[in-house]
Design brief:
The complex is a heterodimer of chains A (133) and B (381). Chain A is an alpha/beta fold and 133 residues long. Chain A has a single domain, classed as Phosphohistidine domain (Glucose Oxidase, domain 1), CATH 3.50.30. Helices cover 23% and strands 26% of the residues of chain A. Chain A has helices at 27-30, 66-75, 90-99, 108-113; strands at residues 2-5, 7-10, 14-20, 54-57, 82-85, 103-105, 119-122, 128-131. The longest helix of chain A is centred in the middle third of the chain and has 10 residues, at 66-75. Chain B is of the alpha/beta class. Chain B has 3 domains: 6-166, Aconitase, domain 3, CATH 3.30.499.10; 170-264, no CATH class; 274-377, 2-Layer Sandwich (Aconitase, domain 3). In chain B, 41% of the residues lie in helices and 15% in strands. Chain B is built from 15 helices and 14 strands. In chain B, helix 2 (39-55) packs across helix 4 (83-98). The termini of chain B are far apart. The relative contact order of chain B is 0.13. Classes of the chains: A alpha/beta (133), B alpha/beta (381). The A-B interface holds A 7-10, 33, 64-65, 67-69, 71-72, 74-77, 79, 88, 90-91, 93-94, 97-100, 105 and B 1-4, 8, 11-12, 15, 18-19, 21, 36, 41-46, 48-49, 52, 145-148.
Chain lengths: 133, 381
């Protein structure tokens, strides 16, 4: 496992596989609030689910109601294990706090090393992300 | 997971500091105004969150008022809305009431219901009210999200960032306008153009045309639609404005052509089927304006959007019935993003609000044109 430094916004220790979206996503209208399935028209990950994944996206876009969608995922028990972002945005961060979803901001270099299916581990008590090689 | 408590709400207020790595710092607030009230906007996911928060028994710590919703919560209003939407909007209202929020359903709390004084720290959502508070009254508030404002109300404080810090209130660019601002539509179009030119920066605005307080409402509402800043410093309107901002600012000049360019974007393909007035809410409607509306030279139905107290005042003075007879409907609790427009099937409307036209197009998919009230009452199509 390779060690990467990250900035923790919402802390929590998790281990799982990366699901990476190269493009921004709107949680409102782009993710089913009851299942976690990506529904955005034309999105490369359409049909995949963010539930149970370590979901990596550059940043979110669109409505601020996206925060409530993340909360809704939590009430339905279909949250992503954690979210990794290139750039902090308040919509996602607010949703992660409300839904108790760990959130970390990664550097450009770490971001380019993230690949779909990579095993990743976010530490609960230090700003460290471990990625399998 | 999915459980809300005070710790989580507090964590929301710390978010800006988690991103920057600074030590979290809060500022006590005296008033809150909440957006994200309309069922059209927040939907089932938002309602679920509000229900969960209200069930914790937490109460707001300061005077807290509410933005308009999607329907008028009255028997009359229920006839112009599908039953499901109506009951959901009612439930949203109940959740807020349970938390101690005063359900004013108005987007002009600064005129009525929650009036701040200069220098007060607030946590307000609803961009037009945020802009008016900072830019005209001289109160201090960031543009909070709906849930951010609610969290601040339940805690009694908000993040000490942005325009809660003196340096954050400094303009970062200078915009000069050389044309006329002789009606509210032009004021709105200018606000829209200034917002686009400013991005997220606070502008220092000098307008040769007169920007008075009432046109400032339309100017700022439109500014908040196209721009990100919570404040504009307007010469002659904003309090304690340094005649010459401290730093030398990048200067942009706008002309009438820029206003025309904004207005061209709001041209409609078809003639309007209804007139919408009151975005932001028409809270101070004059007798003269009402009589002009009743005696308008067109058969188009007119809808006025305002607060419940204003509607009650009109009912008490028997004006409401007369208006109704002349095809002027007064809608309370809702804004122009109103359920009734769908129920009545309007596809093209005309309004005097640039902000209203923008959102009608983008969120309701209703083609919305622009005309000042003066022209709407004199012969129109």
């Amino acid at each position: 496992m390779k060690i990467h430094r990250v900035r923790i916004i919402v802390s929590g220790g998790v281990k799982g596989n990366i699901l990476k979206s190269d493009l921004p996503l709107s949680f409102l209208g782009g993710v089913d609030p009851e299942t976690g399935q990506i529904t955005e028209e034309g999105h490369a990950l359409r049909g995949e689910t963010i539930a149970g994944a370590i979901f990596a996206l550059p940043h979110s876009k669109g409505s601020t109601v996206g925060s409530y969608v993340l909360y809704s995922l939590a009430t339905h028990g279909v949250v992503p294990l954690a979210i990794l972002m290139k750039k902090m945005d308040m919509v996602t961060a607010t949703g992660c706090v409300l839904g108790g979803i760990p959130l970390a901001i990664v550097t450009e270099r770490t971001w380019s090393g993230l690949k779909n299916g990579t095993l990743a581990e976010l530490s609960a008590d230090s700003p460290i992300l471990k990625l399998s090689e | 997971m999915g459980s809300i408590d005070r710790e989580r709400l507090l964590e929301l207020l710390y978010l800006p500091f988690r991103a920057s790595g600074e030590r979290p710092s809060l500022v006590r607030i005296s008033r809150v105004h909440i957006s994200g009230v309309s069922y059209l906007n927040i939907g089932e996911a938002g309602l679920r969150l509000l229900r969960d928060i209200s069930e914790t028994g937490m109460k707001v710590r300061v005077r807290t008022t509410l933005n308009p919703g999607f329907v008028e919560l009255s028997e009359e209003g229920s006839k112009l809305c599908d039953p499901l939407t109506f009951s959901r909007q009612n439930e949203i209202a109940k959740c807020f009431s349970k938390m101690g929020v005063v359900p004013t359903f108005s987007c002009t709390p600064y005129l009525e219901g929650n009036v701040p004084k200069r220098g007060e720290h607030l946590a307000w959502a609803e961009s037009s009210a945020v802009l008016y508070s900072n830019s005209v009254i001289g109160a201090w508030t960031n543009k909070e999200s709906g849930i951010g404002a609610l969290a601040a109300a339940l805690i009694g404080a908000t993040s000490r960032t942005g325009v809660h810090v003196p340096d954050g209130r400094e303009p970062r660019l200078r915009i000069e306008y050389e044309g006329d601002v002789n009606d509210e539509v032009k004021a709105g179009a200018l606000g829209y153009a200034v917002g686009e030119a400013s991005g997220d920066r606070i502008p220092f605005v000098r307008s040769r045309g007169l920007l008075v307080r009432d046109s400032a409402i339309e100017f700022l509402a439109a500014f908040g639609t196209s721009g990100g800043a919570p404040m504009a410093v307007i010469e002659g309107v904003s309090p304690s404005v340094q005649k010459h901002p401290r730093k030398k600012l990048v200067r942009t000049t706008l002309s009438e052509r820029d206003i025309v360019r904004v207005l061209e974007r709001f041209a409609t393909g078809n003639p309007p089927e209804a007139v919408l007035i009151g975005c932001p809410h028409l809270a101070r409607v004059s007798t003269r304006e009402l009589s002009e509306l009743r005696n308008r030279r067109s058969n188009l139905p007119v809808y006025i959007f305002t607060s419940r107290p204003t509607k009650k005042r009109l009912a008490r003075s028997n004006v409401l019935d007369k208006l109704q007879k002349d095809g002027v409907t007064v809608v309370a609790d809702a804004c122009v993003m109103w359920c009734g427009l769908r129920a009545l099937g309007y596809r093209t409307v005309v309004t005097n609000s640039v902000k209203g036209a923008h959102y009608l197009r983008n969120q309701m998919h209703i083609d919305a044109g622009l005309k000042p009230l003066r022209e709407l009452t004199r012969g129109l199509t």
